[in-house]
Structures are given as structure tokens and as C-alpha cells.
């Protein structure tokens, strides 16, 4: 699917992680960081609000390490993710959505529910939007991509949720190749990094409708906006043409990467990430 005459596109298949998501890396890094600092001790409950993949990864790590965990999420996110979290033993709090859409107020309500759990039960809140421990979890991803691409990455194109994966991966890539270009991806209907107004979309795991704490304009050389419809169509095309089964944010990454690659030399390499596995979305609008 790389554009004729444009750059080579390589995709890191993070769907190969244990829960089928790159978020396994950050969940482990946040929990082990809290253990090392003494904030998290055996038996203390963990809590987080999440669109699903972070929650699944946290529940996975918590189950492996023996911690109780509560997850605040919403029916805006896939049933597969919610069932996956439950399978690992997570207690669930579900905030209702409107018409299946991810809206800015949804994250406000989920955060408030998380704060109540912290106040009532003294749970340890991983605070994924502010927790810089997670960025180090992505250094290994960058090292792997660097080695597997033949030590040539000229551009990195990636969707922004908490901004932890973009910050962590790009920081390490710039240590390996200082002139690498980084492009952030956000929903066209909620393009707040581009200076637009917050709005609704169906791209899980990205586009919270606000400038997240870990975002810094200096992290990116450019910002690409992608519509829900284009991202979904690209994810379906990716499955049919490349036999790579992934979610909507991966489709958004590829839409943006094709634009970038078409403007670059043929001897250049663009890196994108298959953020998670398509099995997380088989009952959603993406694949239903």
C-alpha cells in the first residue's frame, strides 16, 4: 500500500503483545514505576479511567502481579475491550455515552468517577494522562522498530491519545536518528492540537477533545487530521490488502502516513504502529 514513487512505509505490529495492544508496555512501566517509588504496595487497589486498551493492559499486569483493580470506562468503547478487562478480574464502572460517540464530556465524567473511587477506597490511580513513567515503556518499541527497519526511520506518524506513546517513541527515535520527522495524528472533528474545537468521533484511544498534559507542540514537526470514516475505511482496506487486522486508530495512522510518504523520497522510510488488534473491534461499526 506504500505510494508509488514515495517513501517505504513500515508498520510495527504491536498487536503481537499479550493483550493485543501496545498499551501493555505502558501499563507495565507505570505499575513497576509505582512499585519502585513505594506508591504501590502489595494488596493496594489500582484504578484508572480509560477507553479500553489501557484498562485491559492494566488489568492484565494487575492480574499477573496480584493487585485488585477497578476500571472506569464507557459503552462508547467496544464490548470486546470491556469483556477483556472483566476476564482479568477488573471491577467495572461504566459511564454511558450518547449515540456511541466519544465526546469531550465523557472523559470529564469518567475522571470524576475515578476521583470518587480514589477518595472512597484510597486506590492507587495510575493517572495515565500525567504519568511520565509510561513514556519509558515505549523506548523498547523504538529500539525494536529501529533494528527491524534496517536502522533507517526518516519519519514517525502516530495518533495521539494520552501522548505517552508519541512522546516516548519519538524521544528515543530522535536519540537514534536526530533528524527524524515526527507527525501527530488527531480526529478531524476534534482537532484541538491543530487549534480547532473539540467534537465527537468514533476513533477509540485518541482525540480526547482537550490538549492532554503530555502534549507539547515541540514533539511534532506537523499535525495530520483524519476523519473517522477515512480511518475506518483504511483499516478495512489494510485487512483486505495486507492481511493486517487492526483498529481505527491504526487506520488513521496509515491514512496520515500515506500522505507523508507521498511527499518523501523513495529511499526514505516512514514508521507507523499497528496500535492494537482488530479482534478488539469486531462488534463495532468498524467491522460489524
Question: If you had to describe this structure to a student in words, what would you say it looks like?
Answer:
This protein is α/β, with parallel strands linked by helices and 288 residues long. The chain folds into 2 domains: 157 residues, Rossmann fold (3-Layer(aba) Sandwich), CATH 3.40.50; 103 residues, Rossmann fold (3-Layer(aba) Sandwich). The protein has 9 helices and 9 strands. The strands form 2 sheets. A 5-stranded parallel beta sheet has the order 1-9-6-7-8, with helices on both faces. Helix 7 links the parallel strand 6 and strand 7. Helix 2 packs parallel to helix 3, helix 6 crosses helix 7 and helix 8 crosses helix 9. The longest helix is centred in the middle third of the chain and has 18 residues.
Main attributes?
9 helices, 4-stranded parallel beta sheet, 5-stranded parallel beta sheet, 2 domains, 288 residues, Rossmann fold, single chain
Poorly predicted ranges: none
Q: Please state roughly what percent of the residues sit in beta strands, choosing from under 5%, 5-15%, 15-25%, 25-35%, 35-45% or over 45%.
A: 15-25%
Order of helices and strands: EHEHEHEHEHHEHEEHHE
* Overall mean confidence score, pLDDT: 95
Radius of gyration, in angstroms, nearest whole number: 18 Å
Total helical elements:
9
Most strands sheet: 5 strands, parallel
Judging by the overall fold, what is the CATH architecture of the largest domain? 3-Layer(aba) Sandwich
- Helix content estimate: 25-40%
CATH topology of the largest domain: Rossmann fold
What is the overall shape? Answer: globular
Which CATH class of the largest domain? Alpha Beta
Number of domains: 2
Would you report the number of β strands?
Answer: 9
Strand-pairing-aware structural class: alpha/beta
How far apart lie the N and C ends?
A: 24 Å
Strand order of the largest sheet: 1-9-6-7-8
Amino acid at each position: 500500500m506504500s505510494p508509488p514513487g514515495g517513501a517505504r512505509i513500515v508498520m510495527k505490529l504491536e498487536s503481537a503483545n499479550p493483550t493485543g495492544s501496545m498499551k501493555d508496555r505502558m501499563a507495565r512501566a507505570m505499575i513497576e514505576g509505582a512499585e519502585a517509588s513505594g506508591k504501590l504496595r502489595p494488596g493496594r487497589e489500582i484504578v484508572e479511567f480509560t477507553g479500553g486498551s489501557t484498562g485491559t493492559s492494566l488489568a492484565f499486569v494487575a492480574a499477573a502481579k496480584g493487585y485488585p483493580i477497578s476500571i472506569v470506562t464507557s459503552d462508547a468503547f467496544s464490548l470486546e475491550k470491556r469483556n477483556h478487562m472483566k476476564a482479568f478480574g477488573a471491577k467495572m464502572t461504566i459511564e454511558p455515552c450518547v449515540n456511541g460517540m466519544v465526546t469531550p464530556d465523557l472523559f470529564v465524567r469518567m475522571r470524576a468517577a475515578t476521583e470518587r473511587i480514589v477518595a472512597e477506597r484510597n486506590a492507587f490511580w495510575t493517572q495515565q494522562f500525567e504519568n511520565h513513567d509510561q513514556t519509558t515503556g515505549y523506548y523498547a518499541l523504538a529500539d525494536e522498530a529501529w533494528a527491524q527497519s534496517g536502522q533507517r526511520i526518516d519519519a514517525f506518524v502516530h495518533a495521539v491519545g494520552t501522548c505517552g506513546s508519541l512522546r516516548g517513541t519519538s524521544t528515543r527515535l530522535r536519540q537514534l536518528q536526530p533528524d527524524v520527522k515526527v507527525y501527530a495524528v488527531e480526529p478531524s472533528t476534534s482537532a484541538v492540537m491543530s487549534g480547532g474545537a473539540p467534537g465527537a468521533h468514533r476513533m477509540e484511544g485518541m482525540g480526547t477533545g482537550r490538549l492532554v498534559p503530555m502534549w507539547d507542540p515541540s514533539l511534532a514537526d506537523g499535525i495530520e487530521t483524519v476523519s473517522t470514516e477515512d480511518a475506518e475505511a483504511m483499516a478495512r482496506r489494510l485487512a483486505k490488502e495486507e492481511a493486517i487486522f487492526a483498529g481505527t486508530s491504526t487506520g488513521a495512522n496509515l491514512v496520515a502516513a500515506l500522505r507523508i510518504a507521498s511527499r518523501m523520497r523513495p529511499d526514505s522510510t516512514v514508521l507507523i504502529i499497528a496500535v492494537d488488534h482488530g479482534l478488539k473491534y469486531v462488534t463495532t461499526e468498524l467491522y460489524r
